[in-house]
Write a structure and sequence with these properties.
Elements lengths: L2 H22 L7 H4 L6 H28 L3 H26 L9 H40 L6 H16 L4 H29 L4 H10 L16 H17 L2 H7 L5 H36 L10 H8 L3 H34 L10 H26 L4 H12 L1 H12 L2 E3 L4 H22 L9 H15 L1 E3 L3
Antiparallel strand pairs: 1-2
Length: 481
């Protein structure tokens, strides 16, 4: 398909997002950017959160990863679902009772200003890395399909994407994101469903044929119990729980969406339903991956060098114009729904935690917040360009490896704050959070040297958070109530 036509379609899609921003930007209050006036319908938040959590990584990388590690990723997702249930029943009611804007402010009472700002700082680092990884894949696809044939560089493609995201989120923030993500979730799920339909029609597969085919394919194996494997069930399941609590329960991005619901009960209902739909959606992506590999086998299509490239390769070249257009829209929607909420959460965390704009009433607040929002967009741009030069592995793997190192200290600090009746020693929290990822890295290298057949997977976050927790206990004193 002509890149000009694809560019026009993307342009129309961008106009739709700006239209959503226009309507949600009316009648804004002082803190609308941060909590959306707490008037979001819970079911709208639920549906939109699928887009935020799935992102462009799942859209492209998870189907391709099926050829590398089968359906083993679903073991991790099962842990995710348990983690979401724990967040819904334990954390969300707590945040509502505290009436927070930034979730890291709940740490200040016990952990002091150092613990509060250290945790917020690690979130900012983690979210910049994660958002960059997620937007990278979508920008790369848009570059290959549209920009490159038109002579537009990859850097300009990324910059244009970030400018559009900034334009439709800078005014109303999370209020706009809740509604725009709902539209974007609908777009990318429609893209996947229609792609599956087109594949099955071309291969003349009925519903019963698909079930038999999937049951017989080696790519559809879910459970792995070899303890040496990074895909071991217990490693993945437990890591999934830890990762979800860290990346969602102690993450300003996801919690901020939940806090736009009218009350704690609505937010809890949202998260419980979301856990179910999230699991179902990821299984749909894994099914698509198995069908893509089967389609390539039947049609004699050579597999690309990187698994991330399989879905784009087939969608853009072999399934017709409808699927090609929907794929471009789907990858754009999946990436934008993740990046828009990330930049909003980063802006919220920095403005509330470090600049204290929520407690200041001067007229320059909105201008400062807008500049911070723009600054984080540019920081993500720089990170994407670095990743473009350096990355050589599956993006989904890279994201969770990075998260294991950066979110581990966040989880460890929260565990200490909630469950350990001690007080950290003065100026100990920041050094501990910096040392913990380094000790985690050194420990994994040592274990891999001693047991060369053992390979680390997503359990890095478990090790990192426990090291952080242990060091906080060692460098703490008894609490005097």
């Amino acid at each position: 398909m002509s890149p000009i036509i694809l560019l026009l379609i993307i342009f129309v899609y961008f106009l739709m997002l700006l239209l959503v921003s226009y309507f949600t930007g009316k009648k804004n209050q002082e803190h609308t950017f941060y909590h959306g006036d707490r008037k979001s319908p819970w079911f709208v938040v639920t549906f939109g959160m699928i887009g935020t959590t799935i992102s462009g990584v799942t859209f492209v990388s998870v189907p391709g990863e099926v050829g590398v590690s089968a359906f083993h990723y679903f073991q991790f997702v099962l842990g995710n679902m348990v983690g979401y249930i724990l967040i819904a029943t334990l954390l969300l009611p707590y945040y509502y009772r505290k009436n927070v804007i930034s979730i890291y402010s709940v740490l200040e009472n016990k952990m002091g200003k150092e613990g509060y700002l250290t945790t917020s700082g690690f979130f900012i680092l983690s979210k910049v890395i994660g958002a960059s990884f997620r937007l990278f894949l979508a920008a790369l696809v848009l570059y290959m399909a549209i920009s490159k044939p038109l002579g537009i560089s990859f850097g300009v493609t990324v910059l244009l994407c970030l400018i559009v995201i900034w334009l439709y989120t800078f005014k109303s923030g999370i209020k706009t994101v809740v509604w725009s993500d709902t539209l974007q979730t609908l777009v990318f799920i429609s893209a996947v469903v229609i792609t599956i339909i087109f594949i099955t029609r071309q291969l003349n597969l009925s519903a019963s044929n698909i079930a038999v085919l999937l049951a017989d394919r080696p790519e559809t194996k879910i459970f792995e119990f070899d303890w040496k494997s990074p895909q071991n069930f217990f490693k993945q399941f437990v890591s999934g729980i830890f990762m979800t609590i860290a990346l969602n329960g102690f993450d300003q991005d996801i919690v901020q969406k939940n806090l736009t619901c009218r009350n704690s009960n609505k937010a809890r209902k949202n998260m419980l339903w979301f856990s179910f739909w999230f699991g179902l959606t990821v299984f749909m992506f894994l099914t698509l991956g198995a069908l893509l590999y089967y389609y390539a086998e039947v049609k004699g299509i050579p597999l690309p060098g990187k698994s991330d490239q399989l879905y784009p390769l087939i969608a853009l070249n072999d399934l017709g114009r409808v699927v090609a257009v929907l794929f471009i829209l789907g990858i754009s929607a999946a990436a934008f729904s993740s990046a828009d909420s990330a930049t909003t959460a980063l802006t919220t965390s920095f403005c509330v935690d470090f600049l204290k704009l929520d407690s200041k009433k001067q007229s320059g607040n909105n201008r400062t917040r807008t500049l911070v929002h723009l600054g984080f967009s540019m920081l993500i741009f720089i990170a994407i360009m670095l990743f473009y030069k350096l990355n050589n592995e599956s993006v989904v793997t890279a994201i969770f490896k990075a998260a294991g190192y950066t979110y581990g200290p966040i989880l460890g600090v929260y565990l200490f704050s909630f469950f350990i009746p001690r007080i950290p020693k003065h100026h100990s929290i920041l050094p501990i959070c910096l040392v913990s990822p380094l000790l985690t890295f050194l420990m994994t290298k040592l274990i891999s040297t001693i047991w060369q057949s053992y390979r680390f997977g997503f359990e890095l976050i478990v090790i990192n958070s426990l090291i952080t927790l242990f060091l906080l206990i060692v460098f703490s004193k008894r609490r005097m109530d």
